Structure formats: C-alpha cells, structure tokens
Amino acid sequence: MTSSIPPELAGLIESPDPADRRKAWSAFLARYNRLLLKAAASFGGDYDARMDRYRHMVEELAADDYRRLRAYHVHSKSSFPAWLTVVARRLCLDLNRSQLGRADRPSGSADGTRTLRRRLIDLAGEIPDPDALLASDDDPANQVEEEERRSAVDRALAELPPRDQLLLRLRYADDLPVRTIANLMGFPTIFHVYRRLRPLLEQLKQRLADHGPPGRAR
Amino acid sequence: MTETHLDPDLIAAYAERRLTPLERAPVEAHLATCAECRRDASAAALLVREERRRRGWLSALPVVAVAAVLALVVVLTPFTDRPRRSGTLRPGDEAQREGVRTLAAFEPGEGSVVPRAHLRFTWQRDGPDALYHFTLADRSGLPRWQVTTGDTSLAVPDTLALSPGERYLWYVDVLLSDAQKATTGVREFTLDR
What is the structure's pLDDT at B99? Predict the structure, then answer.
C-alpha cells in the first residue's frame, strides 16, 4: 500500500517559488502543530522544555529546504501523520540526547529488560525462597544464582517467536495498556491479547522450571 | 553498542497495519529488541487510534453543532435581558444574539472534571489563517488568562495558579478574514481535586 502526499506537504516541497513555499510552511504548521506539540509533550518536562523541543522540531523540519520532510514520498507505506509522529519523536530524542548526553541510551534497565525479567518470574508463579530473601546481595553464591535466573529468563524468551517476545515486552516491560497493544499488533480485540498471553506465560513457566532454579524475583 | 533503528516509514506503517505478513515479521523481530522503536510504534498507533476516533466524531459534528447551538439558546435566553456587570464574561450570549457562527469546542468537555495535568483546550479549526482569542475565566466571569494563537489547542502555563475543585469558564472567539466572527460560546469545567 502506498500513500498520497497531503496537500500541505505537496505545496511545500513541490513549489518552485520561495514565497509560495513560505506560505505552504505556515499552512503545514497550522495543520500539524497539534501533532508536533503532542510529540514534544510526550517526553515530559515543564512548559519551557516542551517548547524547546517544539522549536527544535520546527527548525529541523525546515532545515536544508525541508530535507527531512522530503523523505516522505508517494511510495511511502505509512500515512503522513503517522510518519511525522515517528520523525517528530526522533527529533525530540535527538535534542534530549544533545542536552543530556547519552544517558538515556537503552541499557538493560532502560529498555525494560530488567523489568520484564522480574515480572515474568513473578507471573510465572515462582515462589521466593525465604533464605534467598534474607541473604545479602553481596553474597557471591547469591549473585551466581541471580545470574543463572536471569540467563534462564533470557533463554526462555529467546526461544519464543519474535511476535510473542514483542507481545511480552509491550505488556510487561513497557507496561502498555492491552487496548494499545491490540491496536499496534493487529489483534482483533483485547480478549485476543489476553488469550495469547495466558498460554505464553504457561509456556514460560514450564521453560523456567526446566532451565533454572526457582528463586527471588529481582 | 550499535544503534540501528527502523525507518520511520516502516514503524508508522506497522502501527497502521499497512504491512504484509512478510514485511511485518522482521519489523516485529526488531521491535522485540528495541525499546526506542517500540515507543515510536506505540506513539504512532495511538495517533492512528485518535485520528479514527476524531474522524468518527467529526462525521457527527453537524448534528452536535446544531444541538450545541440549540442548547446555548436555551441556556442563555434567561440572561439576555439582565444588565451586564462591567468586567464580567458573557461573550457567548452576545455572540448568539448577534447571530455569529459557532465554533465547536472539543475539550475539556462541557461540565467535565479535569486533572490539572491533563488540562488542554481544543476547538474546531476555522480556516488556515485564523487567529483565535482564548479566554479562561473564573466562575464569576473575571478573565484569568487570555491569549491569541493560530493554533487550535492550548495548554495552560504552569505558572497560572488555578484552584483544585473550582469551576472555570472558557471560550474562544475568532475574527475571520471576511470580518465575520465565530465563537465557541462559554464552556465550563471543574478542575479536579
């Protein structure tokens, strides 16, 4: 499926007259201001922080004769607003990184892997070992066991088809509402999401039991 | 660590369910391992859902607009003969008497209770170059915040002091290029405690 170029964008990138392009730029902003403001707000922060992001997005979208916007074309598979949402978010992220350094680069914790492991162990119904709960985190034996447990979860996850891995991450690492997951992944209803999650958790429970020692969720 | 992310077009198309099963599989494999692309995809999916909802709402707009005008006439009629206090707010009824066009107010909904964090005003667009005059007032009608904008959506500045549990009034007027006016009329909401 391909998309048509919206008139606000066509006027901007197709007109040879700079005066017409300036007018088209105003029309473009009037049409997509709300979307851009929403993208700016989705990263949190106070009013000034959101406005900084908004300004950055507008500058970057207009830079080099609208170079970024020209990347959208008639053969694009997505609609322009959905595409612009992703581009706008990435511009916000670029600004955040330039301001804060690379601190928000995904890591084991930032990409939700740690949360996912912990929640999967909980949901798979492991019973915490009281001795393990009392043991110190500095105890080498405890650390080895913890590492084994993590590896067991990672192995069990890796054995699942990518679509199932994605489902588990969206639900238990990103904490997305089931309705959003259904929309995103194309499940007909939220019940289909639940229906898929249940056997997946059962399967994980079985694999965790096969792979590693039960213990405390972390 | 190499950070390779999916093309925005692929993520957006996935969120819109425009990919074939063959195209979808590698996208899902990447999303399963990339939190950043997952966040992009869920943001795009949310937008798609809102657009669908808005389109559904807009298709019902003519009916809603007629109902809103009728409701305004019914509500504002008792006030039309009262003397007006200086500095108080009654632009909506004036507008109705003058027969100006109605601009649809989307949010906050009439009579709704809104948490401060979610307080955002949105209304119908009226032409590409329109300038909107927004007023937020306390329940006595005294303006608390006024701003002119080309946008159809506004968030109140964090510096504006508003009291939880209080009722507030708001309205938007627009002066069109043909010197005609349009207004949302006075709307009311309560700030959540």
Answer: 54
Residue B151 is which amino acid?
D
Give ipTM to 2 decimals. 0.81
| Cβ within 8 Å of residue B67, ≥6 positions away | none
| E strand intervals along B99-156 | 101-102, 105-107, 112-114, 120-123, 131-138, 143-149, 153-155
Distances (CA, A) of A35 to A32, A44, A89: 5, 15, 10
**Helix/strand/coil for B137:** strand
DSSP-derived secondary structure letter, B77: G
State phi, psi for A188 to the nearest 5 degrees: -65, -40
pLDDT band at B85 (very low <50, low <70, confident <90, very high): very low
Look up the pTM and report it.
0.60
Interacting residues of A88 by C-beta distance below 8 A, sequence separation 6+: A35, A36, A39, A40, A57
The model's confidence at residue A130, banded by pLDDT at 50, 70 and 90, is very low
What one-letter code names the amino acid at A58? V
Q: Which of B9, B38, B153 sits opposite A34 (nearest CB)?
A: B153
CB contact under 8 A, B28 and A166: yes
**Tokens matching residue A140:** 């080498």
Distances (CA, A) of A141 to A90, A117, A132, A144, A153: 43, 20, 10, 5, 19
Residues 126-155 on B with a CB inside 8 Å of A are: 128-129, 150-153, 155
